[in-house]
From TrEMBL:
Naturally occurring in which organism (per UniProt): Aphanothece hegewaldii CCALA 016
Native organism taxonomy: Bacteria, Bacillati, Cyanobacteriota, Cyanophyceae, Oscillatoriophycideae
EC top class named in words: oxidoreductase
Catalytic activity as recorded in UniProt: 5,6-dihydrouridine(20) in tRNA + NADP(+) = uridine(20) in tRNA + NADPH + H(+); 5,6-dihydrouridine(20a) in tRNA + NAD(+) = uridine(20a) in tRNA + NADH + H(+); 5,6-dihydrouridine(20a) in tRNA + NADP(+) = uridine(20a) in tRNA + NADPH + H(+); 5,6-dihydrouridine(20) in tRNA + NAD(+) = uridine(20) in tRNA + NADH + H(+)
Matching SUPFAM superfamilies: FMN-linked oxidoreductases (SSF51395)
EC number(s) stated in the UniProt entry for this protein: 1.3.1.91
Active site residues according to the UniProt entry: C91 (proton donor)
NCBIfam families reported for this sequence: PRK11815.1, yjbN
Protein name: tRNA-dihydrouridine(20/20a) synthase
Gene Ontology molecular function: flavin adenine dinucleotide binding; FMN binding; tRNA binding; tRNA-dihydrouridine20 synthase activity; tRNA-dihydrouridine20a synthase activity
Keyword Flavoprotein among record annotations: yes
Its job: Catalyzes the synthesis of 5,6-dihydrouridine (D), a modified base found in the D-loop of most tRNAs, via the reduction of the C5-C6 double bond in target uridines. Specifically modifies U20 and U20a in tRNAs.
Amino acid sequence: MNPLSVAPMMERTDRHFRYLMRQITRRTLLYTEMITTAAITHGDRTKLLGFSPEEKPISLQLGGDNPLLLAECARIAEDLGYDEINLNVGCPSSRVQNGHFGACLMAQPETVARCIEAMQKAVMIPVTVKHRIGIDERDRYEDMLNFIKIVSDAGCRRFTVHARKAWLKGLSPKENRTIPPLRYDDVYRLKAEYPHLLIEINGGITTLEQVQQHLQKVDAVMIGRAAYDNPYLFATVDQDIYGENTIPPTRHEVIENMLPYLEFWLGKGLKLNSISRHLLQVFVGQSGTKAWKRHISDNAHLEHAGVEVITEALAKIP
C-alpha cells in the first residue's frame, strides 16, 4: 500500500498540478479531481481522464451512486491505465448531495457496498473508498464502524478516512474542512480493531513530522490543502517516506523541469495561466516569492503569454 497521497481536490488536482507534483515526488500517490459518472458517460473523456504517463501512480476518484455506471467508468479508467479507483463518500457540497453521492452516502452503506461490489467485478485494479468519520447526527464511532463493516464485507480493503464529521446542512464545504473537530483517535481505533483493513488518515495534516507520527498508528496518510499551498513540502518524501537514495530537486529545478511541459501545452493552444496558476506556491516562504507570484499573475493571462513569463518570474527569485 502506498503510505502517502495527495488528496483529490476540485479545481486543483488536475493533470497539470499532478505533473508539477511529479517534478517534486516520484512515489506519492496522486488523485484526480472528483469526476462524476455522468461526466464520463456523456462528456469529453480525453479531456476529463487524460493524463501523462509520468503522473503514475494515479487514482481516479469517481462520484456516483449507480453500480452499473460506476462499473462502466471503472472499466474505462482501467483501460486508460489508472492504478486505482476511489469512490467519493466524503464531499458534503449541496451540489454533490443533489446528485445523491458524496458524504450523504454514508447514511446508505448498503448502496456503497453494491457500488464497490460492481466495480470490483469490473476491474482488476484496487477499488477504494474515501469517507468522513460521520455525518450530521450519525457521528458516533459505532456509526462509522457499521459503515466500514458493511462496505468491507462487499470486498473493499482500503479506506481513506477524513477524520472530521460533515454537516450536510448549515456548513459550506470549506467550513466542513475546518469547523468540525478532528478525531484522529477514532481512525487509530478503527485500524487497531480492523487490522486486516488498510486505513489511511486525512484531515488537518500539514507537516512531514505529522505524517511520520500518523504512520505509527495507521497504514497511510493523505495530505490535502497543504499539498497545494506548499507543494515543495513533498521534496524529501521519496527519501524520508519511501527510503529512496535520491537528491531532492531544488525549487528552481522543479520550475525548469516544467518548461518543456509548458511549451508542449502552449503549442496545443492552452493558455499559460491554465498551468501557471499551479506554480504560484512553489516558492512559498522563500525570498522573492511575492515578486514571483506578482509577475505570473500580472502576465500569464495575457493573450500571447509564453514560457518567458515564467523564466522572467524565476529571475526575480534569489
